[in-house]
Amino acid sequence: MIRIAPSILAADVLNLERDARKMMDAGADWLHVDVMDAHFVPNLAYSPAVVRRLKEISTVPLDVHLMMDHPERFLDPFLDAGADILTIHAEVAGDLGAMLGKIHRRGARAGLAVRPGTGISAVIPFLNQADLILTMTVEPGFGGQKLNEGVLGKISDLRRIGYTGEIEADGGIKESNLEMLTEKGLSVAVMGTALYRAEDPKEMMRRLHEMG
Predict the structure, then answer these.
(1) Which CATH number fits domain 3-209: 2.60.200.40, 3.20.20.70, 3.40.50.800, 1.10.238.10?
(2) What is the predicted pLDDT for the residue at 145?
(3) pLDDT confidence bin for 88, thresholds 50/70/90
(4) Which of 40, 171, 187, 201 can bridge 138 by disulfide, Cβ–Cβ 3.0-4.6 Å?
C-alpha cells in the first residue's frame, strides 16, 4: 500500500499542531517536514525546534527533508529533535556516504534526494546506504507547483536496476496523478495542498491508499 506523507509546509503556520493532528487522524503514514535554508532553495523553513515539538505529538514517523547547502552541520540537531527519516540532497558538496552513515549510526533511516534536473546516476553509488530515494517532481522551495511528468522515469529506472528501498516523490502530487506514480514504482507520496484543502481528508486518504 502506498504511504502518504502530508507536508506541513502546506499547513497553517499558526496552527501546525492542529493541522498535523488533522492529517494523522485522517490516516497519514508519515509527516513530511521540509527544511530550507534560503540558499539551496529560495525559501526558509523549519528549524529543529519545530521538529522537536512535532515529535511530542506525532504518532507517525517524522520524515525530515534537508534542502540545505551544508546538511552535515545540522544532522545532529535534527536527529536530536526526533527525525525518524532524514534526507539530504545528492547535489550538495561534502561526503554523502559519511553523512548517510552518520544518520544510520544515530538510529534513523537515511534518504537521498535529487532535484528534477539531476539524474539517478548521482544516487547510484549510494543505493546500498540509502533507505529512501526522494525524487523531486517540482523544483524544491515552494508548495503548490505542478508536477513535472518528465522526471517520472527516474522512479521506474530505480526499480529497473533493482533498488528495493522506499522511493518517495514530492511536488504537485494529487489524487488525479498518484496512480501514474505508483505504477512506476513509487512507495511514498508527499502531498500538501491537495490534502489540506480536501473537504474530507480522511475519505481522500482512504482513496489514495487504495491506489498503491
Answers:
(1) 3.20.20.70
(2) 80
(3) very high
(4) 171
List the domain boundaries for the chain.
3-209
pTM of the shown model: 0.96
Q: Which residues are catalytic?
A: 34, 170
Query: Which string of b and e fits 161-190 if b means at least 16 CB within 10 Å?
Result: eebebbbbbbbbbbeebbeebbebbbbbbb
